[in-house]
């Protein structure tokens, strides 16, 4: 594992097509704890993978930014609990360095789902109005039977629902309104929506219910 930097640096998207370097905010050493306020949660970020599957050391620029970690402190969040292993939106939250360790302070709504002890994305528990979908395989031939190059295959925008969250909270009644889709349904979703994952050669995506366009039968 590469040596840990005292001030972790990540790249975040900026306007007009530029990238801005954002340094994590270091909490002064005299403060030993961070107590999230409101519905925020503090997540200790998983370590980055420094080697490829073949054991080759990767340069920092080639590593995937971790988007998972364990909840170590929380405010009034209702859908997660302490020690949960959570997945969150890639550029969400405020990055903090606490006692030399990388953390991120998130709003509860930025947490995509809770991972099981096996860390398998296929068993992710989506939160709120989110839906976990196993993507369909891309077509590798045209209608006329011509073989397509890998990078020219049409991106699938449909798949099978594996899990659904408890639903969004109604502003007036404060009751959960469950998503109007069921596990096992085949659905179409907006092309550039959601957060994508790849695991064991399979494609997965977590989208909000509002990004689901139709059910197929």
Automatic annotation (TrEMBL):
PROSITE patterns for the chain: CHAPERONINS_CPN10 (PS00681)
Q: Does the keyword Plastid apply?
A: no
Q: Which InterPro entries match?
A: Chaperonin_GroES, Chaperonin_GroES_sf, Chaprnonin_Cpn10_CS, GroES-like_sf
- UniProt signal peptide: none
Q: What GO MF annotations does this protein's record show?
A: ATP binding; metal ion binding; protein folding chaperone; protein-folding chaperone binding; unfolded protein binding
Keywords in alphabetical order, please: Chaperone
Q: Quote the cellular component terms of the Gene Ontology held in the record.
A: chloroplast; mitochondrion
- Record-linked HAMAP family: CH10 (MF_00580)
Q: What is stated as this protein's family in its record?
A: Belongs to the GroES chaperonin family.
Record-given protein name? 20 kDa chaperonin, chloroplastic
Native source species? Astrephomene gubernaculifera
């Amino acid at each position: 594992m590469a040596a840990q930097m005292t001030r972790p640096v990540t790249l975040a998207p900026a306007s007009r097509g530029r990238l801005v370097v954002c340094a994590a905010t270091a909490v002064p050493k005299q403060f030993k704890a961070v107590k999230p306020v409101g519905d925020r949660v503090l997540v200790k970020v998983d370590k980055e993978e420094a080697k490829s599957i073949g054991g080759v050391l990767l340069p920092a620029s080639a590593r995937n930014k971790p988007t998972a970690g364990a909840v170590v402190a929380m405010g009034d969040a209702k859908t997660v609990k302490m020690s949960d292993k959570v997945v969150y939106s890639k550029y969400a939250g405020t990055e903090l360095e606490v006692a030399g360790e990388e953390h991120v302070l998130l709003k509860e709504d930025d947490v995509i789902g809770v991972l099981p002890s096996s860390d398998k994305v296929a068993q992710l528990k989506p939160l709120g109005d989110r839906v976990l979908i196993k993507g369909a395989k891309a077509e590798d031939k045209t209608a006329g039977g011509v073989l397509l190059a890998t990078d020219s295959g049409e991106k699938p925008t449909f798949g099978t629902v594996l899990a659904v969250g408890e639903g969004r909270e109604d502003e007036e009644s404060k009751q959960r309104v469950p998503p109007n889709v069921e596990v096992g349904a085949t659905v179409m979703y907006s092309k550039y929506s959601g957060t994508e994952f790849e695991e064991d050669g399979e494609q997965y995506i977590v989208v909000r219910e509002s990004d689901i366009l139709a059910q197929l039968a």
